[in-house]
Amino acid sequence: MISPRDYHVHFYFDQNTLDLARQICEQVRDGFSISMGRVHEKNVGPHPKWSCQLTVSPEKFGEVVSWVALNRAGLTVFIHPNTGDDLKDHQEHAIWMGEILELDLSSFH
Does the pLDDT of residue 109 top 90, yes or no? Predict the structure, then answer.
């Protein structure tokens, strides 16, 4: 059985939804006491839009994802485990809320 060390929850946004995304990410960070990365106003890594990453422990996953599902305010959210296999984590193990976007997975091959 594969067990992730943690999960990444990526909120995607653009210049029109930047403030909304920042507010929601801060709510998740503060409400669940989890780590929040930088709010990237450019495409970073495999991500096709501006994004902010939250890191969630397996113990908090269900609670956080349930809250995100109900409070994402129309933003696209990409969620994946961190098992050590980046390609599978971003492709086969991915969970999407909202629009499914194409990731640039070339760096994982």
Answer: no
Model confidence, pTM: 0.96
**Centroid of chain to Cα 22:** 13
Confidence at residue 1, expressed as pLDDT on a 0 to 100 scale: 83
Q: Is 25 exposed, middle or buried (0-12, 13-18, 19+ CB in 10 A)?
A: buried
Burial grade of 79 (CB within 10 A; 0-12, 13-18, 19 or more) = buried
If we measure between CA atoms, which residue out of 69, 64, 78, 66 comes closest to residue 29?
A: 64
pLDDT tops 90 at residue 25 = yes
> How do the domains of the chain map onto residue ranges?
6-100
Count, residues in the chain = 109
Amino acid at site 28: V
**C-alpha to C-alpha distance for 13 and 41, rounded to whole angstroms:** 9
CATH 3.30.70.1240 fits 6-100, yes or no: yes
Model confidence at 105: pLDDT above 90: yes
